[in-house]
Amino acid sequence: MYNSETHKEIKRVYVDSSAVGGKFNKRIAEQTKPFWDAVDRGEIVIIVSDILEQEIRDARTPQRVKDFFDASLKTRAVRIMTTEEVRVLAKRYISENVVGNDSFADCLHVSLATLANADVLVSWNLTHMVNNSDGYKKINKMLGYPEIEILTPEKFMEVQHDET
Questions:
Q1: Residue 64: phi, psi to the nearest 5?
Q2: Which residue range forms the structural domain that includes residue 93?
Q3: Which of 78, 139, 144, 156 has its CA 20 to 30 A from that of 86?
């Protein structure tokens, strides 16, 4: 997509719960703020999933994160649902040893972003997502899917800045 007013390409970005919660996490809120500011300016189209909503609804999720999801993301984001194809791709990441069995939910996020044709998946999950980006790309390429970029909100904004 292209914004004719700013003359910039609008990225379709899938967010996981760490990117949403990062807005309120004292350790990473400052690094996450520019990302959410860009969303507010309409420079980014957010993609959310039923899996993200399930994670947000978890009893351990702080209320302010739930409120932000309900007030902002639930109403203005593109919403996608988990399908059998999503589950099969997520299981393939595990069977190909990109990550272990305990990371199935993370694999669901990557497969949801992939099958939604997101430009980028934004996450603060370094261990199971960001640092394993090459493994996910390898499997996607092998299976004929797009090679999804997985970046932290901070790195995404750096890349966005470099592209302008």
A1: -65, -30
A2: 2-163
A3: 156
Query: For residue 90, what are the contacts with CB-CB under 8 A and spacing of at least 6?
Result: 104, 107, 108, 110, 111
Of 89, 91, 108, nearest in space to 146 by CA:
89
User: Tokens at residue 102, please?
Assistant: 């305990």
User: Side chain identity at 139, as an amino acid letter?
Assistant: I
Rounded to two decimals, what is the model's pTM? 0.91
Query: What would the pLDDT profile of 46-79 be if each residue is shown by its tens digit?
Result: 999 999 999 999 989 999 999 999 988 877 899 9
SS3 81: coil
Using the Cα atoms of residue 116, residue 122, residue 124 and residue 129 in order, give the sign of their dihedral.
positive
Cβ proximity of 6 and 43 under 8 Å: yes
Looking at 40-115, which runs of residues are DSSP E strands?
44-49, 78-80
- What's 48's domain CATH number? 3.40.50.1010
- Residue 158: CA atoms inside 13 Å, Cβ hemisphere, count? 6
Residue in the block written with tokens 């994160």: 65
- In single-letter form, the type of residue at position 64 comes to R
Q: Which two tokens stand for residue 81?
A: 């649902």
